[in-house]
Amino acid sequence: MFTAKRLLFFVFLSITMLAACSNKQEANWEESEFFDVGMYKMIGTENKIGFIYNPDHLLFVENQVNKYMWHIWADKEELQGGFKVLASSEDKPDEKIEILNLKSEFDYLSPNNGATTHIPSHMMLPKSGMWKLETYINDQLFDEIYVKVWEEEA
């Protein structure tokens, strides 16, 4: 009986640990993939979401506002509700800042560069390092993009 209780406890503990590990997603703090769409280089997830960004021409620099053109490949039905982007830095992953919030689907524009829609935006991140950009459509997580932010030059 004592052995059966120990066995049951071990099985319960193992299942609990496996469930906890599978629910916890570890962030991969590496810059997202770059991909080409027409004459533009984008960062994000090809055929899902990305924004025009070419570090060979313009770096994402801390405390500098720049224009970024988002592109989303999705069914029209998925594009109901607003679009927002929350950002967190690698050294403070639990602290999120809102860097973009379009309240309604009327902010989505026509197809562009093969994407279902495109969204012009201005974004700025306050410090250098790796940043995770969580994209939401209708308050549902759509995808995550990791971007390196460079230090301001003095």
Give a nutshell description of this structure.
By secondary structure, the chain is mainly β.
Overview of the molecule:
By secondary structure, the chain is mainly beta. Helices cover 14% and strands 42% of the residues. It has one helix and nine strands, in the order H-E-E-E-E-E-E-E-E-E. The protein has a five-stranded antiparallel sheet, with no helix packed on it. Strand 8 and strand 9 form a beta hairpin. The protein is globular. The N and C termini lie far apart (72 Å).
Radius of gyration: 20 Å
Mean pLDDT: 85
> Overall 3D geometry?
globular
Biggest sheet statistics: 5 strands, antiparallel
Features:
154 residues; 5-stranded antiparallel sheet
Indicate the topology.
Layout: H1 2-23, E1 34-37, E2 40-45, E3 49-52, E4 66-72, E5 83-89, E6 92-102, E7 117-123, E8 129-137, E9 140-149
Antiparallel strand pairs: 1-2, 2-3, 3-4, 4-7, 5-6, 5-8, 8-9
